Amino acid sequence: MDKMVVLAVAVFVTLSSCAVGCSGNTNSTELKLWSMEDQSTAAQLAAVFKEMERIRCEQTTLEQQQHALTQMHAASQKRRAQKKVGRNVLTYGTNDEEEDNLHFSEKDSRRRGDPCFHYTVLDQAWRATNTTTKFKMCDRNVKWKGWYRLFYKGKSIQMPERCVPLNKCGTNSPLWLAGPHPKRREGIVTRRVCGHWKKNCCAFRSTPIKVKKCLGNYYVYKFTQPSSCYLAYCADINTLVCGQCRRNQYCESRDKINWRCKTKKTSSKKIHFFVSYPGQLRGKVNRIKYSKVLVNMGRAFNRRTGVFRAPVKGVYQFFFSTQAASAGLKTDLWLVVNGYWVAVSHTHISRPSTVGSLSMYMTFLRRGAVVYVTHNCGRSWANAASMTITFGGSLIAQLK
């Protein structure tokens, strides 16, 4: 009987150590077991088997929890993969809004290197063009690092583009931008900086700086240490209005003193084309290559491929025609937009004759949409002098 107790205790110690290793919690049951030495053998054996059963239950519970966690992790990975695939598919479908089609991670990677999103606010009232101070400041003593955006009392402002009088901007020789601020499409540009001294607006030609225009009608500057003291970069008080311009406006000034917000003119792009095929077509022609191009304003039609590609988003109107030339045959021409057959020009002649057919179609297209004509069946007739197999279209209204 004592041997059975020893064997049971050995099995129990093994299971107990496994349970501790799996669960990470100390098990005080062993201590309780050894404290029963003065108990009878039957009582000790019963206690051992009871604890063994409890440990088996705990192991079963742990295995079930681990299995459930594994399933939850696999389901989570599957959902993330499906989301990623869905975003990729969406990106291919809308190529007219390039910035909006980027994934958030791609946008973040762009922004990380864009100074428009990483700059230091420089809000020092003494830099204003209308400020004179007793103690003169010198930007040569500043350790310039990275990009800066100018403010005046919490309002966006920019550097002056004209000569600033002496002893303004809190210094002896005010530094101004000797050149126009860039447009957004120009990206980062290098501009010369001049300092006014002794009636010479560019007596001090300081180290050039970099400038970039950002979305929102503001500029960021990569300042450098001026050539000497006392020189300091100016903030033009007259440009306070520029920080109030809307996204569809820009800041304008004729004298570089009085600034105003002016609305951008949206010029609608002119797109018109008219082409013909000077020959005969029989049976199925997947894409008619209209070789005779009479009008191609905007160059959106490709003579080599026979494809019209929408250059801008908007409302377009198309027409296409044919001249059927065989009795007893039906002739079908289809207008194909982004792979979909959307309109047909159909003729069916019962007796020897020729019949012309013209079809029109108006639709909304995104930038990059592909439009062409296919000859599905029958026979179409034309020659070099006739205009019976034609294709044309125009942009009716451009959309943002």
From TrEMBL:
This is Uncharacterized protein LOC108891980 isoform X1. The lineage of its organism: Eukaryota, Metazoa, Chordata, Craniata, Vertebrata. The keyword Zinc-finger does not apply. Keywords: Disulfide bond, Secreted, Signal. It is found in: Secreted. InterPro entries: C1q_dom, Cerebellin_Synaptic_Org, D8C_UMOD/GP2/OIT3-like, Tumour_necrosis_fac-like_dom. Coiled coil: none annotated. It comes from the Eukaryota. Residues 266-400 form the C1q domain. Residues 1-24 form the signal peptide. The keyword Metal-binding does not apply. Gene3D superfamilies: 2.60.120.40. It comes from Lates calcarifer (Barramundi). GO terms for cellular component: extracellular space. Pfam families: C1q (PF00386), D8C_UMOD (PF23283). The gene is LOC108891980.
